[in-house]
TrEMBL record:
InterPro entries, sorted: AA/rel_permease1, APC_superfamily
An annotated Gene Ontology molecular function: transmembrane transporter activity
Transmembrane segments: 49-72, 130-153
Keywords attached to this entry: Cell membrane, Membrane, Transmembrane, Transmembrane helix, Transport
Protein name per UniProt: Amino acid permease
Annotated membrane topology: Multi-pass membrane protein
Length: 174
């Protein structure tokens, strides 16, 4: 699949390289997200632009350059961050990097079902108060059901994950 995508990418752009600012925007969307931009602007107003510029200069641009360099240096490795760490350091440190990467996703994944409930509140009621109107037990049980539903859907193959990813990406703009 990646060979087909790589060939189409090369045919379309004439090369297989992604520019640093494209990687920076991808990183920005994945790490920071458009939701944080809207929320921060609503809370802090125009003064938030200063912190955005600092975050861009101190994190996203260096991150994009580092990922680009490591990706091009270790283009044959298939393990991402853990492969990069293993090739530049030790297997033990690579294990810790992979473990840390996995562990940080636990709280992230735990809060996603609640974020879905809040989004449903905006769709159904026009505000984000749905969760605050429910009991803690109801929120926990519904969040668990949503989590288990997505876990079950993830076992249905790559095409299902592509559809879910496409819907989630589209929902970010709605």
């Amino acid at each position: 699949m990646s060979a087909i995508y790589s060939k189409k990418f090369k045919e379309f752009y004439g090369h297989k390289k992604i520019r640093w600012f494209t990687v920076a925007f991808i990183a920005f969307n994945m790490v920071w997200g458009k939701g944080n931009v809207v929320n921060n602007f609503a809370q802090q107003g125009i003064t938030v632009v200063t912190s955005w510029l600092l975050i861009l200069a101190l994190y996203f641009i260096p991150y994009a350059l580092i990922v680009g360099q490591l990706g091009s240096t270790f283009k044959d490795s298939k393990g991402g961050v853990s492969s990069w760490v293993e090739n530049t350091s030790t297997k033990r440190l690579a294990y810790y990097a992979a473990w840390t990467y996995w562990v940080v996703h636990i709280p992230y994944l735990a809060q996603k079902p609640q974020a879905i409930l809040i989004a449903f509140g905006w769709v159904g009621q026009g505000n984000g108060n749905l969760v605050s109107q429910m009991s803690m037990t109801a929120v926990a049980l519904i969040s668990l059901a949503i989590f288990l539903a997505f876990l079950w859907l993830s076992t249905k193959g790559l095409n299902t994950l592509k559809v879910i990813g496409g819907l989630a990406g589209t929902a970010m703009f709605v």
